[in-house]
UniProtKB/TrEMBL annotation:
Biased composition (Gly residues): 450-461
Domain GAF: 116-268
InterPro entries: CdaR-like_regulators, CdaR_GGDEF, GAF, GAF-like_dom_sf, PucR_C-HTH_dom, PucR_C-HTH_sf
Protein name: GAF domain-containing protein
Start and end residues of each stretch annotated as Disordered: 1-38, 59-78, 443-474, 500-600
Coiled coil, from the record: none
Native species: Streptomyces reniochalinae
SUPFAM superfamilies: GAF domain-like
Record family assignment: Belongs to the CdaR family.
Residue ranges, compositional bias (Basic and acidic residues): 516-534
Biased composition range(s): Low complexity: 66-78, 540-550, 570-592
Length: 765
């Protein structure tokens, strides 16, 4: 077609009202329209679009015109527009699906990365809100304990009341989803009658302003509902199936995240438990190894308690059988059940051997104890029983050796001293130092009353070493305690005449070098001469003294114990050592082997009494200077110890320990040596020493006083002094011998000592 040109300002014809040109222009336009609607190129373009919308294979594009659909009366442009819109919608859908898949992939990536479960859930809710283009998204989880659901994660929420909502099963849209495990959607929740409306739920939803709500369940293994995932708008909206499917995909991922978190928590707890059990097993193995090692190297019970305390923690102690009554019930229960038992915050494991109770292990500070630790404590109790048996066997063997050696000393007076020393050295005894022989008796509860009646069929002397009704267990405990005492004091122990016999070394006095009370009192007194034989002294009338005028020297102070060896100091303790030694009055014991014997006897009686829980009486012999040099001296000393023991029972001094020197003038009858000088010094020693040091006549005054019937008035005539002088001298005697020196039980000993002193002719005789 040929185009015709016109001048620029040419007018338009009447047939061209729009002023668009002449006939050529119309022809050209008509030609373009014809090509768009009916031309072959137009048909090819529409064919390509049809193929594109139908998703045809590549080979179909070789003849696009054959696939072009007729316009059916419509224009080609309209058909092209329709196809273009379809292609656009398809592209939008694909872009949307791509975004959804990207969100799902990111969620899977979060799950695979083992991120914090709260972060994963928050990310899921955020993506659901973004991809569904809603204003609010949130998630509730099921609370099995309360039987409802609670708000866990919100995105886009502005109401605090809404964020704190709890939905019961079947209440509201979420409660119905949780109850039925099916998704529900509403375009107008406030007006939707399908749901059970409650005031708390409607108030929270109304405050948040939500209208359209979609909820899908969080399912585990397709059955168990653990929560609900929501998407909501503040305007009416219809959720299409694709959006419901997308939210269900996110809900499935959220369920997986929660289940993974649960499994991870359980796995972590299981691993922690395994670590704890492994650590406990290692501790138990360590205890087993340490206990085995200490048994092999000859350790003791303290090593067991120390090792157990380090492994289990807390304080561990071993309680001997017959210990505090606090644990008796728990120990009996542990022994009966064969396991460790708990009492308050202490675990008790009985230590037994063949049914015999040996004690218990006590673990303090553990209200709860794991089973493995309980078995550790029980294993330690078993090891302790083995150690106790081993110690007992060793102790019994050592006791047999000690007993055999003491038996030889008591029976064979002509043993070789060198052999005796060698045998004693093996058990830690030294027979070259002074010893004493002690006879021991466990008195029954009524022994004191039976013995108080004196000798005879019912007296203590007739009872024998042990009464017929004496319990065998008490005898065994007494023998064990005596053997232990001999071992700790480096002595010997044996049984003789039904009771224990001990040969113990004499320990030096712990108070030597200290001033006695007599010394302190004498040095503090103002010197006067009233007690000299010719001293005039000041005049003192009877009214100036306390007590009777005929009994000077007696004050109104309480008298000392009327029985030697009781709560007061024994009478012999008021005596002194030989002249030149330190004098002793009232509580201070003088130096020397004699007082060491008395002290040893008292200590042994007290220790054995505590060990057996009953009164134990001990009689001691005079010192044996060196048993190895004079083996026969031990055999000779034993009868004296026995006589002293019987004398204590006759005197009613049950549960005491004493030597013959503690029994006053009776000691002269009990000993073979008849130590008259020792008796005189023990009775009058302080007075004799005072006269010797100051040249006074206290002994002569006492002799005259007793000779005149204890009358100072008659004694002054014999002494040729004033009566006040006699009174002052007797006051001095009271200070030296004690306020009870004129008591009947003492006057007999004092008068006997005065006569023996006068007969001996000299103090040191």
């Amino acid at each position: 077609m040929r185009r015709t040109s016109h001048p620029p300002n040419a007018a338009t014809g009447p047939g061209d009202p729009a002023g668009t040109g002449g006939p050529d222009e119309h022809a050209e336009a008509g030609g373009h329209v014809g090509r768009a609607g009916t031309g072959p190129d137009d048909h090819a373009c529409l064919g390509y679009l049809e193929l594109l919308t139908r998703g045809a294979p590549p080979e179909a594009y070789d003849e696009p015109a054959a696939h072009a659909a007729p316009a059916h009366g419509g224009s080609a442009a309209a058909r092209g527009k329709h196809l273009a819109l379809r292609i656009r919608a398809e592209l939008e859908g694909r872009r949307r699906r791509e975004a959804e898949l990207t969100g799902l992939f990111e969620t899977v990536h979060d799950l695979a990365g083992l991120r914090d479960v709260d972060d994963v859930l928050q990310a899921i809710v955020q993506r659901a809100r973004r991809l569904l283009s809603t204003e609010v998204a949130y998630m509730t989880l099921t609370d099995p304990e309360r039987g409802d659901t609670y708000m866990r994660v919100t995105e886009g929420s502005v109401s605090a009341r809404f964020q704190q909502l709890r939905l019961g099963m079947g209440e509201g849209l979420g409660g119905l989803v949780a109850q039925t495990a099916r998704p529900y959607a509403t375009q107008d929740y406030p007006r939707d009658a399908r749901f059970q409306h409650t005031h708390p739920i409607d108030s929270g939803v109304g405050e948040e302003g939500l209208v359209a709500i979609l909820g899908v369940p969080l399912l585990l293994r397709g059955r168990e509902v653990i929560g609900v995932l929501y998407a909501a708008d503040r305007r009416e909206r219809v959720f299409d199936p694709e959006q419901i499917a997308l939210l269900r995909s996110f809900a499935a991922h959220a369920a997986v995240a929660l289940d993974n978190a649960r499994l991870l928590t359980e796995t972590t707890q299981a691993l922690a438990g395994l670590r704890a059990v492994n650590a406990t097993i290692r501790r138990a193995s360590d205890v087993h190894d340490r206990l085995t090692e200490l048994v092999l190297r000859g350790g003791g019970v303290p090593d067991v308690t120390r090792a157990l305390a380090e492994v289990l923690g807390g304080a561990v102690e071993f309680a001997d059988s017959g210990g505090p009554a606090t644990w008796e019930a728990a120990v009996a229960r542990s022994r009966r059940d064969g396991h460790a038992v708990r009492q308050d915050d202490t675990w008790v494991a009985a230590v037994t051997a063949g049914g015999e109770p040996l004690g218990a292990l006590l673990l303090h500070g553990h209200p709860e104890l794991a089973p493995v630790d309980q078995r550790t404590l029980e294993r330690a109790a078993m090891v302790t029983s083995l150690l106790q048996l081993a110690r007992r066997s060793a102790g019994e063997a050592e006791q047999r050796v000690r007993g055999e050696l003491l038996d030889d000393l008591l029976d064979a007076a002509h043993r070789d001293p060198h052999l005796l020393r060698d045998r004693a050295a093996r058990v830690g005894a030294d027979l070259d130092v002074p010893h004493t022989v002690l006879a021991v008796r466990l008195d029954p509860p009524d022994a004191g009353e039976a013995g108080a009646g004196g000798p005879g069929p019912g007296g203590a002397a007739a009872r024998g070493p042990f009464a017929a009704d004496e319990d065998e267990g008490d005898r065994q405990r007494l023998w064990s305690a005596a053997g232990h005492l001999a071992a700790t004091r480096h002595g010997l122990a044996a049984t003789r005449d039904g009771g224990p016999v001990l040969l113990l070394p004499l320990a030096p006095p712990s108070h030597s070098g200290r001033l006695t009370r007599s010394d302190r009192r004498t040095r503090s007194d103002h010197p006067d001469h009233s007690d000299r034989p010719d001293g005039p002294g000041p005049s003192v009338g009877p009214s100036d003294r306390s007590g009777s005028p005929d009994r000077p020297g007696s004050s109104d102070r309480p008298a000392r114990s009327a029985r030697p060896g009781s709560s007061g100091e024994p009478a012999s303790a008021r005596g002194s050592a030989p002249r030149g030694g330190a004098a002793s009055v009232g509580g201070a014991a003088p130096a020397g082997d004699g007082e060491a014997v008395s002290r040893t006897a008292r200590q042994v009686a007290a220790e054995l009494g505590r060990a057996v829980g009953g009164p134990v009486t001990v009689g001691a012999s005079a010192p044996v200077p060196a048993p190895a040099d004079l083996p026969g001296a031990v055999a000779a000393a034993y009868p004296e110890a026995r006589r002293c023991l019987d004398a204590l029972s006759l005197l009613g001094r049950r549960g005491e320990g004493a030597a013959a020197s503690d029994l006053g003038f009776l000691g002269l009858l009990l000993t073979d040596t008849r130590d008259v000088t020792g008796f005189v010094h023990r009775t009058l020693g302080p007075v004799l020493d005072y006269d010797a040091q100051r040249g006074t006549g206290l002994v002569a005054t006492m002799d005259a006083y007793f000779s005149c019937g204890m009358s100072p008035v008659r004694a002054k005539d014999v002494l040729h002094v004033h009566v006040n002088t006699v009174a002052q001298r007797l006051e001095r005697v009271a200070r030296l011998l004690g306020d009870d020196w004129q008591a009947p039980h003492r006057t007999l000993e004092i008068q006997l000592a005065l006569r023996l002193h006068r007969l001996a002719g000299a103090v040191g005789g």
